[in-house]
Known about the structure:
The structure holds three protein chains of three kinds.
Chain A: E1 2-7, E2 10-15, H1 22-29, E3 48-51, E4 54-57, E5 70-72, H2 79-90, H3 100-113, H4 119-125, H5 137-154
Helix pairs in contact in A: 2-3, 2-5, 3-5
Chain B: E1 3-8, H1 12-18, E2 23-26, H2 32-37, E3 44-48, E4 58-61, E5 64-68, H3 73-77, H4 80-83, H5 88-95, H6 100-105, H7 108-113, H8 122-127, E6 131-136, E7 139-144, E8 149-151, E9 154-155, E10 161-168, E11 174-179, E12 190-199, E13 202-211, E14 218-219, H9 221-227, H10 235-249, H11 255-272, H12 274-278
Parallel strand pairs in B: 1-3, 2-3
Antiparallel strand pairs in B: 4-5, 5-10, 6-7, 6-10, 8-9, 11-12, 12-13, 13-14
Helix pairs in contact in B: 9-10, 10-11
Chain C: H1 16-20, E1 36-42, E2 48-53, H2 55-59, E3 63-67, E4 91-92, E5 98-104, H3 107-116, E6 118-123, H4 130-135, E7 146-154, E8 164-172, E9 184-190, E10 193-198, H5 203-214, E11 221-225, H6 241-251, E12 255-258, H7 261-267, E13 273-282, E14 288-300, H8 306-316, E15 325-334, H9 348-366, H10 370-377, H11 397-411, E16 420-431, E17 441-448, E18 454-457, H12 467-479, E19 487-489, H13 507-533, E20 542-545, E21 548-551, E22 554-560, E23 570-576, E24 594-605, E25 612-622, H14 629-649, E26 654-655, E27 658-659, E28 679-683, H15 705-717, H16 728-735
Parallel strand pairs in C: 1-12, 10-11, 14-15, 18-19, 25-28
Antiparallel strand pairs in C: 1-5, 2-4, 2-6, 3-5, 7-15, 8-13, 9-10, 9-12, 13-14, 16-24, 17-18, 17-23, 20-21, 21-22, 24-25, 26-27
Helix pairs in contact in C: 5-6, 8-9, 9-10, 9-15, 12-13, 14-15
Amino acid sequence: MIINTTxxxxxxxxxxxxxxxxxxxxxxxxxxxxxxxxxSEGECGTCTVLLDGEAVDSCLVMAFxxxxxxxxxxxxxDDDLSIIKETFLEEGAPQCGYCMPGMVLSAKGLLDxxxxxxxxxxxxxxxxxxxxxxxxxxxxxxxxxxxxKLGDDNE
Amino acid sequence: MKVxxxxxxxxxxxxxxxxxxxxxIIAGGTDIxxxxxxxxLSDVSLVDISKLExxxxxxxxxxxITIGANTTYTDILDRPDIFKGNLEGFYNAIKSVGSxxxxxxxxxxxxxxxxxxxxxxxxxxxxxxxxLKIIGKNGERIMPLKDFFKGKQEVDLNNExxxxxxxxxxxxxxxxxxxSPRNALAITWGSxxxxxxxxxxxxxxxxxxxxxxxxxxxxxxxxxNALIGKSTASIDGFLDMASSIVMKRIEDFPKDFKxxxxxxxxxxxxxxxxxxxxx
Amino acid sequence: xxxxxxxxxxSKRVEGMDKLNGISMYPQDIFMQDELIGLxxxxxxxxxxxxxxxxxxxxxxxxxxxxxxxxxxKNEHGVLFKDHQVFCDGTVKRVGDPIALIIAENLExxxxxxxxxxxxxxxxxxxxxxxxxxxxxxxxxxxxxxIAEIKIDKGQVDFDKCDFVVEETFEVPSVEHAFLQPExxxxxxxxxxxxxxxxTQYPHWDQIEIAxxxxxxxxKVKVINAxxxxxxxxREDITSQIHAAIGALKIKRPIxxxxxxxxxxxxxxxxxxxxxxxxxxxxxEGKLIALKGEILADxxxxxSWAPNILRKACVHASGPYEIPNVYIEGKSLYTNNxxxxxxxxxxxxxVAVAYEQLIDMLAEKMGISNYELRLRNVLxxxxxxxxxxxxxxxxxxxxxxRIAEEELNKLRGNDKPNVLTxxxxxxxxxxxxxxxxxxxxxxxxxxxxxxxxxxxSSGFTEVGQGAKTVMAQIASEVFNTDPSKIVINCxxxxxxxxxxxxxxxxQTYNTGNAVKKSCESxxxxxxxxxxxxxxxxxxxGIEIENEEVYLKTLPSKRMLFSxxxxxxxxxxxxxxxxxxxxxxxGQGAPYWPYGFNALGVKVEIDPKSGHINVVDGVFVxxxxxxINPRQIEGQMDGGFVMGLGYxxxxxxxxxxxxxxxxxxxxxxxxxxxxxxxxxxxxVEDPEETGPYxxxxxxxxxxxxVAPAILNAIFDASGVRFTKLPVTPVEFMKKFGG
Lengths: 155, 279, 737
């Protein structure tokens, strides 16, 4: 099935099999392995990408369903994303790293809509991203700090 | 996973033409993709309706609300202006589904048509006496939601498409409680939705719908009849009665499952019958 | 004494940006031309003889081969005892035992082929309880199901001499590591050598086990540790590595194996379930006098680290308290349940659930506060443990306790209506290192590389705990440079010395010491060379910083590190921990150093439904020296969330050897909305044998959590829970409703 989609800002046309999940398309067809697979049932969020700007589990989207849509993965070049990643690093958020791409994208999804989230908003935004290493707090701190930095940049 | 073919429907009429035996509708995909991946479904063809924007809407005219089947949970949560007040219980039910990622994709139509015994949007819609508009090769039909569920994961759709759900804004508060193991990514062990009308401490009317306590979400008529006309003080004894109704359905299930359902239903009712119970 | 420059700062994680950019490679991210996919066939029965027929599966187009026990040179592996088979050879002892590996062109074909494999099982009697195992009617391995026994016998336990006695039986379940990255390996040939890329806690040990199984010299096997997506003890036993290696060697194409979440849960070890019958007595003055305990551990179908875990449990059963008379008897038993092995805390986590609740129970009986009872009995410098080991240094548990109590009291009050509010305290102790006199050795080589940078080579593992950054900070402290400038080799068995496992909270202390030693040795050699070159009198007044060496009083006398690159200057460092073997009465100095902490929590319980939320808490951690404070805070939160899951949510639901809950949709892990924002306080009381005074805390941080929560639940509701997890349903069953 021919799909026309935008991946990280680049327009592409691709022939996908109806069996392919978005996560397989990204990792195996496009070799964008930053998106991870952790549970295959939408329970862990390691496969989170932004679909038309909204956080989704790419293990629960069929590749043919992104026709006409845009996908943002962790590999995207984006100033806001860079600020978020740099802040995550400064705040000590990453540990084993497996949940990080998903967490960063859920953060971007939140901060694109809510410029001044409080901790509850942040907890809600990453409530679909499991982490076994960090206990979430430093990730939440990083997202709140990111919102402050992004807020400063916009002024 | 084994998908024979996938069709992307460009219009409702095209979709209806495509719906033949061995086809399955995919909208958000958050339920069906798991089934496909785990091999519970195979050799089916998919009809993707996610591009049908005409099915994605929320209309409010006076007190009548109509929600298109392709409306996502997030779409609903983005309209607190419509879904608060007496509909806050419905709003909370939608908010309790999965995670932000699931809510950005999952649709209310999918939630209803999957026929899951623990679908979160259904118990509130049942007490709201919601009606479904269904489109098939023979045209349109309207049916009450409460008659939609035929059995476990079996719904009254015959190669048809759910178009929309309609209900009236209730005159009294819709209460909803979902019992789940944690605060997010919360699977439903059981849920209860209820609208209760009390006058001088007598229960004039009560509507109760359950999720997770039967083969499908349903109106609990036996429980409703047990309470109508009774004083609110009788709610104490009601918990045991409600529990025994559920226990009869799951007689042959293992002990720990029964214990879990007993605790769940009593807890749900304690919450839902709210202020009346505390008094 | 110079002020530390890098050690003690929250340096940025050296591999952090790669992880954030999604370019850190876990084995599943590696794609090789010509690769084949391996899919394991695993037993669906807990205990049975079996016959398998692969004919139909082999005929399927796209299936290249199916490996079985016939393809293994030496069909065994195991961290202590070689009781695992690489592929089961006619008998399976647990659900999930590996029987065969289908090798196919892609995963879909492999899955189709797996449906065509015919396995006929003949059931054998299954042993699923400790009681059944003890009968020894069905033997799982060898001549008895008892794989380990230990006794701690100090003084004379006599409860008649106690004025107050409490006793209780505690049951803690088997739980799952649930690291987010499922296991994966990719193996290929490099000439005659087999290369295995996987995510492991000990690349050099894997190298040995792979080589033995496939019948090659160790030098013919190379193990590369890819990025490790969490471990917590669950990557110590072999899973996919040998399977992949056999395939690569036989078929001469790269073999890639990636586990699904379900297979991951089936394949690796679990935490030991334990039954602990404990009795504790105190005198009127509030001094603990006696402790008696009977500990039974279920190691499942394979031993893994059973004896060591049992030992750690029994040694730590008396908690961070001085108790003069202790008698603990422990047994670890084989069953046909999923096998248990290393998991964060390694036995010390389980016993804390017992001793910290006994303390609260005893205090209640005595009519004194549990804080007071703890205060009167905590270990101090000079105290002796239950093994008569003298705590001679860095024992700040009293300080941790005082701070936790003070901070916990600040949380009291403002109780919400309609919920039951409770406050709970717990302390813990954790002896780090392999222990018991077993050689616990780290090795590091430091050199100046071709780019004029300091390069350290050691086979340690970054599992997410921050080891790379800690080692970089230690090295950068010695050489006065930025941690980002330190080049680290730790992932390839070809160019690193064996430095032991990333386990037992040993890396910061043990490997950190080796890194420090080797860097100091290299620094000495650099200074020697400099003195010689510039004909100086001695080494004083010479500065090393930012990859340069110069004489402070005459900086024109200067050399760049890059000028030294081709001199092959290197420093080697070895560190061996100091422990002794326990005697027959369990007396000795089995671990060093010990880490302590104190945790206070506030819980709110919904009395209508039984839901328990930890809404606030204060965590006080003894670290010796915080090499990287931010990383320690991250570990404290992480340890907390794991203990939270253990206490309230995680339930594998094992029935007759079958794990019912093996997916994330039914094995419940805490989410961000379940986790409170803790106040975290680091206490520094330097460990004199540690690098810059540091000791390891990776496991310590999870131990006091479940006990503190259980104590808070009792405070809130008056109900004492002696079994985990305390789910809402379990709470309501005991509380009523």
